[in-house]
């Protein structure tokens, strides 16, 4: 069985394993201790809608592809400028800047596990929506948060590709 399509029951447990808060639709990034539900179909330009969604987890941008499908699965979440604001703003991506090429991001969707490996990290202008609208011939996961943390000056974009083993 390909590692990219394992079921939750196939997950090998080690002492560093984070158990996902949701295997129906969730994200785990062990390197930064991120573990959250993913809220689907959130309009990234409707502030009222995305602010509400971000209180419950990480938001999936409206129009994203599903995990494992060719295209762009676009997820976004808060960052914050101070540790004491992490809970206040549900800043799941507070340490997203720590990710580097080769780091793993795990998505759970409908009780299946999808492993992605980081291949790109960029700082983009908030007006550059190309990372949101890009379509790919392979499954790509795009993670976005504000940068510097706690500001609206720029966007930190981390992209990862689905791995098959």
What is the topology?
Blueprint: E1 6-7, E2 25-29, E3 34-42, H1 47-54, E4 58-61, E5 71-76, H2 86-89, E6 104-109, E7 112-124, H3 130-133, E8 139-147, E9 154-162
Parallel strand pairs: 3-4, 5-8
Antiparallel strand pairs: 1-7, 2-3, 2-6, 4-5, 6-7, 7-9, 8-9
Could you walk me through the main structural features you see in this protein, from its secondary elements to its overall organization?
The protein is mainly β. The protein has three helices and nine strands. The chain has helices at 47-54, 86-89, 130-133, and strands at residues 6-7, 25-29, 34-42, 58-61, 71-76, 104-109, 112-124, 139-147, 154-162. The chain has an eight-stranded mixed β-barrel. Strand 3, helix 1 and strand 4 form a beta-alpha-beta unit. The longest helix has 8 residues, at 47-54. The protein starts with 5 loop residues before the first strand and ends with a strand. The model is unreliable at 84-89 (pLDDT under 50).
Keywords:
single chain; eight-stranded mixed barrel
Strand order of the largest sheet: 2-3-4-5-8-9-7-6
Strand content: 35-45%
Q: Could you give the order of the helices and strands?
A: EEEHEEHEEHEE
Give the beta-strand count.
Answer: 9
Q: Cα-atom Rg, whole angstroms?
A: 15 Å
Helix content: under 10%
The structure class reads: mainly beta
- Return the average pLDDT rounded to an integer: 84
SS field, number of helical segments: 3
- Name the overall outline: globular
Q: Extract low-pLDDT stretches.
A: 84-89
């Amino acid at each position: 069985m390909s590692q990219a399509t394992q079921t939750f029951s196939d997950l090998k447990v080690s002492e560093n394993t984070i158990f996902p808060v949701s295997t129906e639709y969730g994200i785990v990034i062990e390197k930064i201790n991120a573990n959250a539900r993913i809220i689907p179909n959130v309009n990234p330009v409707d502030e009222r809608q995305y602010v509400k969604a971000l209180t419950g987890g990480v938001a999936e941008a409206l129009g994203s592809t599903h995990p494992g499908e060719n295209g762009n699965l676009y997820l976004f979440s808060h960052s914050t400028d101070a540790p004491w604001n992490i809970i206040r703003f549900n800043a799941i991506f507070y340490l997203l800047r720590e990710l580097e090429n080769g780091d793993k991001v795990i998505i759970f969707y409908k009780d299946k596990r999808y492993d992605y490996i980081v291949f790109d990290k960029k700082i983009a202008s908030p007006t550059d929506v190309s990372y949101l609208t890009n379509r790919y011939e392979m499954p790509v996961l795009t993670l976005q948060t504000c940068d510097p943390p706690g500001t609206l000056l720029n966007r930190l974009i981390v992209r990862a590709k689905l791995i098959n083993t």
